[in-house]
């Protein structure tokens, strides 16, 4: 609304050709608004910025929304919203189940995220793609989009001959087979050791690969058993993490196996792919390596096998042609940028990816240890994700035990996973997804500072106030104190932030907003008594409390973080 009114003032002050100028309103969610339009117009008009700002103010019609506008610095317009206007806007939020979040024009949005490997342990490297992808899926769904989760698991290829033969040797019902559910790396390592040490086993494994690719029923049955046992493991991780991926979202490499030969044939027939050193490759303009040599996208190896390039071409063709995608997100490591761009450019050249479909690489940075190197165990192995999550829950339990010894043991046991997992997820999401961060569990589970537990505690504190209020009903909002004003401003920013996250795919913006909101509520709580206020003021402040709780719980929910009833 402020944007439209500023644009109208520009038209009245300088002519209609200026009415569409972007006034560059920059609201903080913890302060009033500031508009930077005079400086951008000053050069076009040949006038000093402050003179331009003064002319805008003369033609500005926002008295019902803002206090008298001030010109500051070289020509900023400072816009302080009226308390009376905030009263009605917050009251509107109280009656709006969407809390100011709009429903956008629907798009079909496949999101590729998580993508572990069958018969292998998920490690800390899978944490970020899983958590970030899930937060984006939740947010885009909340904005009204049709989100299609695509868990592109590694479930096909030459290692499966080795794994199937080992499964046959140990027996499908054996304790060793159950390691696929509890400790996949041990099962994989045993199969690899046998493959490396026993030539007869290695020969059987290679033969099994041929039968797998040929669709041999018995081999496929064993392969399905491997996949089913791994699903149990994946689902244990996803349940612990509280993410929304299910078996129905699995779209592994095997899904596209029957399409790969046809993809190669089509690309070769159209001249997009050519044979080089026995391999079928796509050479694209602009992709060169050392000494200017062209970098190929290999779509069929010299031995006739297929790689990631072929499978990824099949996925994007499927997501556009069959799923009807308007926007496709790939939530994977930053190092995959070159590969993805080559796949996308090849798909465009083949006519499988049109310009009206947006494809985005949501680049994922690394998780580091205290030494600022990739987070690993003391032995140097990748840190198992389940071990990390177990440690987080144990650390959270010690924090909850110390902070709330008055709570029954079973209640503290219920709170600890919510706090521990929430702490890990918030620490990850609160950092720009393409940045690295140091994994510091002590800081993550702290009840103070910019942490998940701090936000969970803020929500629990609001719940405590509302429980103490009993049957008292919320009423109209009347803002009179500075802390109420700041809290109201913060609440009104929620819808804009959710839209920004959906548009720019940056969950850390929502984290930053929720932290500012919790701080605004803390200041309000300290300076504005709720339960001891007179009836009208009490009713107004209870409304502020209830809207704050709704926004905190909804915002944390979009991040995939739960809100304990007590902390």
Write the layout of secondary structure elements.
Layout: H1 2-14, E1 33-35, H2 38-45, H3 49-58, E2 70-72, E3 76-79, H4 83-94, E4 108-112, H5 125-142, E5 146-150, H6 159-170, H7 175-182, H8 184-197, H9 199-214, H10 217-241, H11 260-269, E6 273-276, E7 279-288, E8 294-300, H12 308-321, E9 327-333, H13 337-350, E10 358-364, E11 367-368, H14 385-403, H15 409-429, E12 437-438, H16 441-444, H17 452-469, H18 482-492, H19 494-504, H20 508-527, H21 535-558
Parallel strand pairs: 4-5, 4-9, 9-10, 11-12
Antiparallel strand pairs: 1-3, 2-3, 6-7, 7-8
Helix pairs in contact: 1-3, 2-3, 4-18, 4-21, 6-8, 6-9, 6-10, 7-8, 7-10, 8-9, 12-13, 14-15, 17-20, 17-21, 18-20, 18-21, 19-20, 20-21
Summarize it.
The protein is an alpha/beta fold and 567 residues long. It contains 21 helices and twelve strands.
Folded structure, characterized:
With 567 residues, the protein is α/β, with parallel strands linked by helices. It has four domains: 2-81, Arginyl tRNA synthetase N-terminal domain (Gyrase A, domain 2, 2-Layer Sandwich), CATH 3.30.1360.70; 108-153 and 256-368, Rossmann fold (3-Layer(aba) Sandwich), CATH 3.40.50; 159-247, no CATH class; 402-558, Isoleucyl-tRNA Synthetase, Domain 1 (Orthogonal Bundle), CATH 1.10.730. It is 53% helix and 10% strand. The chain is built from 21 helices and twelve strands. Strands 5-4-9-10 form a four-stranded parallel β-sheet, with helices on both faces. A three-stranded antiparallel β-sheet has the order 1-3-2, with helices on one face. A three-stranded antiparallel β-sheet has the order 6-7-8. The longest helix has 25 residues, at 217-241. It is globular and about 85 Å long.
């Amino acid at each position: 609304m402020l944007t439209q009114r500023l644009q109208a003032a520009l038209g009245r002050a300088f002519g209609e050709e200026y009415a569409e100028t972007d006034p560059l309103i920059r609201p903080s969610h913890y302060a009033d608004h500031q508009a930077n339009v005079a400086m951008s117009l000053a050069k076009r008009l040949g006038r000093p910025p402050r003179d331009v700002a003064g002319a805008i103010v003369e033609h500005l019609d926002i008295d019902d929304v803002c206090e008298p506008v001030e010109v500051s610095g070289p020509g900023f317009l400072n816009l302080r919203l009226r308390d009376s206007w905030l009263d009605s806007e917050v009251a509107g939020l109280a009656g709006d189940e969407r809390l100011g979040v709009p429903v956008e024009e629907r798009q079909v949005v496949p999101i590729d995220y998580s993508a572990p490997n069958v018969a292998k342990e998920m490690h800390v490297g899978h944490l970020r793609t899983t958590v970030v992808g899930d937060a984006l899926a939740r947010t885009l769904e909340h904005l009204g989009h049709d989100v299609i989760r695509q868990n592109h698991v590694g479930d096909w290829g030459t290692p499966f001959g080795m794994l199937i033969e080992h499964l046959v040797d140990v027996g499908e019902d054996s304790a060793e087979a159950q390691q696929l559910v509890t400790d996949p790396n041990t099962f994989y390592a045993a199969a690899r050791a046998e493959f490396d040490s026993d030539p007869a086993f290695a020969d059987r494994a290679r033969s099994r690969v041929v039968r797998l690719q040929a669709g041999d029923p018995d081999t496929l049955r064993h392969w399905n058993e491997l996949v089913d046992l791994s699903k149990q493991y994946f689902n244990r991780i996803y349940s612990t993490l509280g993410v929304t991926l299910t078996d129905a979202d699995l779209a592994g490499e095997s899904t596209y196996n029957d399409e790969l030969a046809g993809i190669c044939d089509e690309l070769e027939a159209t001249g997009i792919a050519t044979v080089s050193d026995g391999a079928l490759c796509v050479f694209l303009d602009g992709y060169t390596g050392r000494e200017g040599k062209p970098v190929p996208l290999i779509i069929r190896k010299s031995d006739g096998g297929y790689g990631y390039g072929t499978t990824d071409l099949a996925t994007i063709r499927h997501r556009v042609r069959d799923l009807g995608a308007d926007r496709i997100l790939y939530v994977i490591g930053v190092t995959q940028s070159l590969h993805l761009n080559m796949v996308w450019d090849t798909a465009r050249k083949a006519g499988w990816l049109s310009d009206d479909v947006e494809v985005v690489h949501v680049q994922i940075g690394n998780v580091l240890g205290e030494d600022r190197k990739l987070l690993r165990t003391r032995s140097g192995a990748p840190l198992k994700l389940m071990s990390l999550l177990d440690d987080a829950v144990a650390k959270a339990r010690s924090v909850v035990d110390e902070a709330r010894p008055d709570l029954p043991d079973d209640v503290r046991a219920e709170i600890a996973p919510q706090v521990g997992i929430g702490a890990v997820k918030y620490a990850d999401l609160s950092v720009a997804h393409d940045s690295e961060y140091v994994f510091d569990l002590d800081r993550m589970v702290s009840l103070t500072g910019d942490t998940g537990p701090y936000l969970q505690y803020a929500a629990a504190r609001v719940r405590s106030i509302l429980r103490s209020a009993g049957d008292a009903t919320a009423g109209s909002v009347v803002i009179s104190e500075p802390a109420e004003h700041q809290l109201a401003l913060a609440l009104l920013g929620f819808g804009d932030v959710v839209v920004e996250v959906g548009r720019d795919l940056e969950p850390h913006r929502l984290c930053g907003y929720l932290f500012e909101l919790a701080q605004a509520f803390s200041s309000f709580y300290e300076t504005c008594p709720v339960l001891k206020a007179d009836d009208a003021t009490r009713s107004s402040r209870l409304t502020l409390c209830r809207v704050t709780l709704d926004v905190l719980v909804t915002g944390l929910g979009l991040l995939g973080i739960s809100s304990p009833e007590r902390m």
